[in-house]
Design goal:
Number of helices: 12
CATH architecture of the largest domain: 3-Layer(aba) Sandwich
Number of domains: 3
Radius of gyration: 31 Å
Largest sheet: 7 strands, mixed
Number of strands: 29
Low-confidence stretches: 1-5
Bound molecules: adenosine-5'-triphosphate, magnesium ion
Mean pLDDT: 93
Helix content: 10-25%
Structural class: alpha/beta
Strand order of the largest sheet: 14-27-28-29-25-26-15
Shape: elongated
Oligomer: single chain
Length: 597
Amino acid sequence: MPVEPNPPAPAPSDFIRDIVAADVTQKRYAQIVTRFPPEPNGYLHLGHAKSICLNFGIARENHGRCNLRFDDTNPAKEETEYVDSITADVRWLIAGWADHCLGFKPNGASPARTTVNGQSDNYLGPVAPGANSEPFSASSYFDQLYDYAVELIKRGKAYVCDLSPEDTDSYRGAPGRPGKDSPFRTRTVAENLDLYTRMKTGDFPDGARSLRSKIDMASPNMWLRDPLLYRIRHTAHHHTGDKWCIYPLYDYAHCLSDYLEGVTHSICTLEFVDHRPFYNWILEKLGLPRPLPHQYEFAKLNLGYTIVSKRKLLQLVSEKYVSGWDDPRMPTLSGLRRRGIPASAIRAFVTGVGVTKFDSLTEVSVFENAVRHELNAAAQRRLAVLKPVKLVLTNIPAGEILECAATNNPQDANPTTRKIALTREVFIEADDFAEVPPPKYFRLKPGGEVRLKYACIIKCDEVVKNAAGAITELRGTADLTTRAGGPNVDKKVKGTIHWVSASKCVDAEVRLYDRLFNVAEPAAEDDFLKVVNPRSLEIVTAKLEASLAAAKPEDRFQFERLGYFALDKDSPVGPPLAGGPRLIFNRTISLKDTWAK
Ligand code: ATP
Ligand code: MG
């Protein structure tokens, strides 16, 4: 069934975009600035794609910008490998769509330590994307964050606390039961400044002291019971090396990083609702001179049969359930890319599911259909046989090549064709032949006829078997009068099957993927590793039409009647190797959803 060319999608609308639109109307900010703030402790997944597309989408729709910022305040879990993969994944996802909004900072730049109206400010200023650019990172603001903490101490809003981590916890109380003031809460400003300086210069071991905000130990909101601002960690940081032995906590660093970058709308997920008062408290208590950023929360993406948690995905990698973060079965952006899923399909999907304030589970078929929709329009059609059985057409002389015209993409406005070779020996799909066919079987059977797509009608005359009774080849005849241009081209048969020439084909390893989990909500299991689908990968040696030898990694193909396929990154580029197929294809997705069966 022909589909219409993609109509321009209507601009998305949701409660966050409504807030932004109102701020634009009221000219509250000179420019709309958002940010995507991953912690570099794993690879990005589909859930992150939702956040990326929301933040970059808002920037794009409002002539604004969106910063990629690493929230790298915890040196223990963070690695450069993750910084690099995240940067590449974000660039890939927004390429050609919102890269003009990407607020990359010039190499090496860190905010000027300026003052506005006599107040410390440090605004980074608007920055243009450029070839020599690198993403932002919270760690590049450590100097400013330190200064802001000094300012909080001077304003009597922060103190150095000597409680152990365990005592800090027990003093905090519980929801519904007020906490207790730390005995160190009444230290003088001078004493706090001295101790905080010495925390920085390394005078104390890990955990000996912390810097805490002074808010309210009886607050009904646990996040306002003097939350920590800084802790001591004698650990090198992937970005700042050995410079620091105190590190800011996420909540403290986040709002100030937003402010330094001129972020206007700081969008995060629902678990941060309770943190919002603290976010605002810090910014307000510092009496900052420019308009403050505001935090808004939306529901995370949860997807059926899929895990969206870096921690659990890391477990799949480290315990070798998959070959790596970019295993094509992984819901990571690098896995999805390797599998052949276009960035446009991911953007269409995460935008289509919408932005709400309520947690829900999106059916995986919604994602799969978005992928099919994009690939149906984009993919070049090719013939390939995954589980081949040989068919000898005895009336075609050996060595003869009959050229047939095959359509490249019927979805194109003006579809083009390519030539494929019909020869004496062809391969057909083993599944397309039944020696004892069930009722209403329209594919090939002994004495039956089918059309070989783009070629002609053929008849099966003989089934050849080996001593063990297994089929070794089929023999039949081609009715060449039913070829294009022939007198009987209009002859009808019920079945049409795909095929490739046995002498004009290439071998390929084809990796057939299935869902990685057996249940719709693997994250809800006590042990999600127990519901890993043991049959999520099947490898076959397939026969492909010869033109596929020239496939490039970025090409998208539909193998007719089978699904969508793309070259794997393991597929060596260059001349065929002796022994073993050179080509490796991944099945991106089947043509139809067959999971229910
Ligand atoms: P994970 O639990 O997988 O580690 P995270 O939220 O801890 O995710 P971050 O690196 O902190 O990962 O996330 C960066 C941004 O992506 C945050 O703003 C976060 O809210 C958002 N995000 C993470 N997971 C999802 C999701 N499933 N749906 C929508 N946004 C998400
Ligand atoms: Mg996180």
